[in-house]
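Colleagues,

For the teaching module next term, I've prepared a clean inverse folding example: a structure given as tokens, and then the sequence designed for it. I'd like students to try predicting residues themselves before seeing the answer, so please don't circulate the second half yet.
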């Protein structure tokens, strides 16, 4: 991959910042354009940033495993890993044959010395979580000792620092007026400034459709609350049966999630009903064995992300000239897959045949924008 290209990346959330840093480290000429501040807007602004490998979707687990490997093998991964607190993470789901099988498959495929996946008993889960997980709550329980919580906003800023250290441009408060792509390259008009490049990466999260309205994504809310903890768990707990997660914050607080979702075309059109969100969060916590009242709720955070219909992102060329790659639609998992996505984008732009040319080349179609196209009707 000794090709030399100029790339413009739009969007300084975790995806765009990691993509731009990964290309910078390869010696490519990169400009990152962000309409506010890097890491300070969009899903990245609100993200809980849990890192866990297991996912009910095996393709997302594969991507996450690739992120785990990149933390060991790449410069960008090394910087990324510096703000991941590997405190361990507990995943609890309803005890069914389906869940048991999915977890067994994931352990068989991905668990090794680099990243262990361990089934634990309710008693062990109770001990690991300082009593927050009730020992009499019999579920299927998975513990990932090297999972944890990332300081995602710091990671995005560290990526910006890395980009600049290679002499590349990070432009904040950038107002993009127009984008055009031709067979020979792309042009982005930003105020009175015109930037030209060989490729464009569109990583504008839930705003991506404002720039390319054919993208099959919408915006969905992911509300969560910060609460005063009555008992502190040193590890995050994801409880899929009650549909909540608990993320320990420092100093006696934690964040917990709600399942109340609203959808809209863009973040500005989303509506949050705190009157519903707070009781929803408290009810789910109670189901997980954590009793709280509304007085414990300190803030409600109005998080959101870009979503696709099948829960997988779009990482694909979206124009006929193959000049513009979209990396969007992260459906609430964009932090843990950011490194793997950045690596895929690198392969797409730098390998001569535009193939991913990686262990993932067989799954390229799963992340293609065209997977949502209606099948042609036979006359
Ligand atoms: C509450 C919550 C909890 C989450 N928990 C987890 C988790 O536990 N684990 C996990 O892996 N993921 C989690 N996620 C998901 C993850 O945070 C997101 O998938 C990820 O942050 C998406 O990053 P992004 O860069 O694609 O988009 P964003 O972070 O939305 O970034 C898009 C950026 O593009 C910029 N932009 C938009 N339009 C323009 C324009 N015209 N010009 C220039 N810039 C533009 C925006 O200002 C923004 O900075 C969570 C998300 C939320 C909200």
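(Answer key — instructors only)
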């Amino acid at each position: 991959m000794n090709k030399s290209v100029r790339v413009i990346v739009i969007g300084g959330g975790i995806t765009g910042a990691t993509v731009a840093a990964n290309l910078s480290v390869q010696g490519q000429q990169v400009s990152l354009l962000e309409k506010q501040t890097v890491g300070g807007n969009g899903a990245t602004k609100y993200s809980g940033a849990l890192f866990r490998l297991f996912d009910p979707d095996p393709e997302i687990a594969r991507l996450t495993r690739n992120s785990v490997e990149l933390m060991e093998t790449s410069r960008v991964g090394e910087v990324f890993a510096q703000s991941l607190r590997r405190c361990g993470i507990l995943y609890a789901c309803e005890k069914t044959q389906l869940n048991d099988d999915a977890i067994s498959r994931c352990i068989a495929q991905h668990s090794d010395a680099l990243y262990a996946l361990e089934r634990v008993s309710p008693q062990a889960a109770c001990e690991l979580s300082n009593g927050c997980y009730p020992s009499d709550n019999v579920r299927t329980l998975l513990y990932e000792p090297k999972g944890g919580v990332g300081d995602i906003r710091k990671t995005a800023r560290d990526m910006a620092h890395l980009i600049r250290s290679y002499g590349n441009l990070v432009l904040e408060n950038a107002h993009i007026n127009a984008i055009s792509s031709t067979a020979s390259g792309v042009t982005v008009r930003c105020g009175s400034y015109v930037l030209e490049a060989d490729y464009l990466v569109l990583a504008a999260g839930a705003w991506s459709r404002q720039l390319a309205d054919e993208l099959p994504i919408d915006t969905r809310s992911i509300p969560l609350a910060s609460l005063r903890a009555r008992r502190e768990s040193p590890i995050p707990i994801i409880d899929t049966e009650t549909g909540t997660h608990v993320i320990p914050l420092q100093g006696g607080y934690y964040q917990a999630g709600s399942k109340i979702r609203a959808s809209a075309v863009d973040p500005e059109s989303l509506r949050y009903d705190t009157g519903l969100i707070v009781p929803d969060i408290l009810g789910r916590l109670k189901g997980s064995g954590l009793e709280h009242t509304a007085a414990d709720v300190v803030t409600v955070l109005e998080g959101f992300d870009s979503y696709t219909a099948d829960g997988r992102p779009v990482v694909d060329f979206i124009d006929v000239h193959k000049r513009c790659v979209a990396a969007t639609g992260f459906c609430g998992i964009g932090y843990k897959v950011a490194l793997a996505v950045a690596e895929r984008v690198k392969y797409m732009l730098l390998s001569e045949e535009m193939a991913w040319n990686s262990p993932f080349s067989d799954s390229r179609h799963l992340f293609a924008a065209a997977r949502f196209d209606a099948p042609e009707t036979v006359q």
